[in-house]
Amino acid sequence: VNRPSFTHLPAPMSTDGEPLAEGLHRQLGKMLWPHTADDSVLAAIQSPWFQGLEFFEEQPDHCFFVQHANGPCGLLACIQAHLVRELLFPATGPATAPRVATLDQRRHALACAVASCLWQAGAAKDAFLAIPAHAAIIDPMLPTPIAAQLFSSAAIRLHHAKTQEALLALVDLALPHLIRPGGVILLLYSMMLSRGLGNVMTDFGKHVPTMIGDDSCSEQAVVNLFLIGQARNEIDSDTWADYPGSPPVGFLTSASGYVPAPCLRNPAYPIWVVHGGGHYTVLWSSDPEVLQHPPPL
What we know:
Shape: globular
Mean pLDDT: 86
Strand order of the largest sheet: 1-3-2
Oligomer: single chain
Largest sheet: 3 strands, antiparallel
Helix content: 25-40%
């Protein structure tokens, strides 16, 4: 996997960006959130997603995220897995154990993990990052849907990167926006825009009305978007028969009757997002030899 060194970045990019068109924002909302005319219902569905990529403050000596409510665990597990990969298998320099990473190491790894996901979603050609023009002041207790608040109060701007190096520099600059509340939604917007909304719609098809359900939980399409860069909603071999090689991070599940495709069971690194009991978490090893013993079906 070709990843540029985080220690040799160009100067920070302009923070101006381009305004995220209101029509594009509405389309994102229609693809993400269940359709309801009741703003209070929609706000309740969106509320669990109003968090950032926040490290668990009560244990400051490790790199693990806190999840405040049921809903975004799939997305958080994916970024967590990519972050662990950046620490254990960095593009340059020695490996760092996730439980002893310093704050600087954690933030560098997080920026690299986010940039890697965005670049993969953009088919290694370009990527977009949606961030507010200034710090958003949003009250998750208001009945107005959070996505609408985020758009109107923060004036989201869209930033375009055409190289991996430029993307890393941009993500590094924008990291505070992704860490604070609202960052998870902004990252999901960015992934969908990098993939292209037309491609996302084609990926998950007509059988999945929205990427997030009435229970605030995401469809598998969100997980696959972060793992493979495509928002297909299935994990079976037929769905991923045309996928070349192995993704950086794999996927396993304990759900009866579901067998992940070989590419998902056998990633490039010994790191997997694991699904079981309606929850997603991360399994990893620092020993690449683990890959010589594929997980059983």
